[in-house]
């Protein structure tokens, strides 16, 4: 039997242990609260760093991409500036994708042609699409008939047309910000007549125009070209056509078949060889095919050398071989070759009369159009000298309707 003193000792120990346990519990609670607060602070700081990390990764992804090539992984540097945040502008908006606002870019031709060759598999459009006509000017410098073209475009909706100008590198078209030609120059390269570089410039124009998904028809023009009908007539004629307008014919002379090279066999035979004017008009599907082509373009680049001229033979041969049923086999640009020689007749001020312009507009012949016949064969004409501008402006409203 324990004594009372022993029981008192036991009670004291119990009280001491209880006090100690409660002190430990309070300590653990305080420690838990401290750890919890520190964890919250660390979490907030980490979240900020994670955002910055992913933002940096996004910039690195777009600024220096690693892609697979036949030879292995390669780094591709994209020169366009990266916008870290798109608070003020939706960087992935349909508007920016469908119709680039700025024609300036640093793409090389192979990059540009690849980008232009992209074709949506889905046939429906997620936006209201109004077909546009792309007017593509291949020029060595100034456009002497700019006032006439400005008059042609005056009052027309920008949703119905777009303009592209390929000039010599370093040349800048001097127009006001209200002009239809304002900021419509594309990045260009040097062009030498009679070489493949001339057709490269034409493909460059096509590729830049294809970046706008609303462009449906593509007309190649020069600085010496003029319109001989008003805009509504031209727009309706082209957008309602079921065919493209590329002149393509078999020329048995030394200026035609005589330029053929047997080194193009077996892909191109003599029976495939065609000649025609470089001043074409194309539908979108044919334009995509041309900027996508490597096989036939490479053959022409290697084997169509002076006195063979790629701009006279590549497109007529290519279209005839692959898209013959989609081509009207004629040009909508009037050119006078009646004088012979390597260049067509040039028209100056003294040639410009009402009768002459009317003759180009309707000379009594009939031309194929949508499996029928039409009296309107030509929408444009060349080759006009700068002195022809003033008399053309005097006649444009009365004769050409603008």
Automatic annotation (TrEMBL):
List, alphabetically, the InterPro entries matched. Answer: BC10-like, Glyco_trans_14
State the superkingdom: Eukaryota
Entry keyword Glycoprotein: yes
Q: Name one GO cellular component term.
A: membrane
Q: Tell me where in or outside the cell this protein is found.
A: Membrane
- Mode of membrane association: Single-pass type II membrane protein
- Where is this protein chiefly located? membrane
Q: Does the keyword Phosphoprotein apply?
A: no
Which chain regions cross the lipid bilayer? 26-45
Q: Cite the GO molecular-function annotations of the record.
A: glycosyltransferase activity
| UniProt keyword terms in alphabetical order | Glycoprotein, Glycosyltransferase, Membrane, Transferase, Transmembrane, Transmembrane helix
UniProt protein name: Core-2/I-branching beta-1,6-N-acetylglucosaminyltransferase family protein
């Amino acid at each position: 039997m324990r004594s009372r003193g022993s029981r008192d000792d036991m009670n004291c120990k119990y009280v001491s242990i209880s006090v100690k346990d409660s002190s430990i519990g309070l300590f653990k609670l305080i420690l838990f609260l401290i750890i919890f607060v520190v964890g919250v602070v660390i979490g907030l700081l980490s979240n900020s760093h994670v955002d910055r990390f992913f933002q940096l990764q996004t910039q690195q992804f777009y600024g220096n991409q690693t892609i697979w090539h036949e030879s292995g992984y390669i780094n591709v540097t994209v020169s366009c500036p990266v916008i870290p945040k798109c608070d003020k502008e939706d960087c992935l908006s349909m508007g920016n994708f469908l119709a680039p606002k700025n024609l300036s870019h640093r793409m090389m031709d192979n990059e540009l042609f690849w980008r232009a060759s992209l074709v949506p598999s889905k046939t429906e459009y997620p936006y209201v699409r109004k077909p546009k006509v792309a007017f593509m000017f291949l020029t060595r410098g100034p456009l002497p008939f700019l006032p006439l073209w400005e008059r042609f475009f005056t009052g027309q909706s920008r949703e119905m047309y777009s303009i592209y100008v390929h000039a010599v590198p370093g040349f800048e078209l001097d127009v006001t910000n209200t002009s239809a030609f304002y900021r419509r120059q594309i990045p260009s390269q040097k062009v030498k007549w009679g070489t493949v570089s001339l057709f490269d410039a034409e493909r460059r124009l096509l590729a830049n125009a294809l970046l706008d998904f609303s462009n449906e028809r593509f007309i190649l023009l020069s600085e010496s070209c003029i319109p001989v009908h008003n805009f509504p007539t031209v727009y309706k004629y082209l957008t309602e056509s079921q065919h493209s307008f590329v002149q393509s014919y078999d020329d048995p002379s030394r200026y035609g078949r005589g330029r053929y090279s047997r080194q193009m066999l077996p892909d191109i035979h003599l029976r495939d060889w065609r000649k025609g004017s470089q001043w074409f008009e194309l539908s979108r599907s044919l334009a995509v095919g041309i900027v996508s082509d490597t096989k036939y373009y490479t053959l022409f680049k290697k084997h169509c050398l002076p006195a063979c001229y790629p701009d006279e033979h590549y497109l007529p041969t290519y279209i005839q071989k692959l898209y013959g049923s989609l081509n009207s086999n004629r040009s909508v640009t009037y050119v006078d070759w009646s004088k012979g020689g390597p260049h067509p007749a040039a028209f100056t001020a003294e040639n410009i009369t009402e009768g002459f312009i009317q003759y180009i507009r309707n000379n009594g012949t009939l031309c194929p159009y949508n499996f029928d016949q039409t009296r309107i064969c030509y929408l444009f004409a060349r080759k006009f000298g700068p002195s022809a501008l003033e008399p053309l402006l005097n006649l444009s409203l009365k004769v050409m309707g603008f």
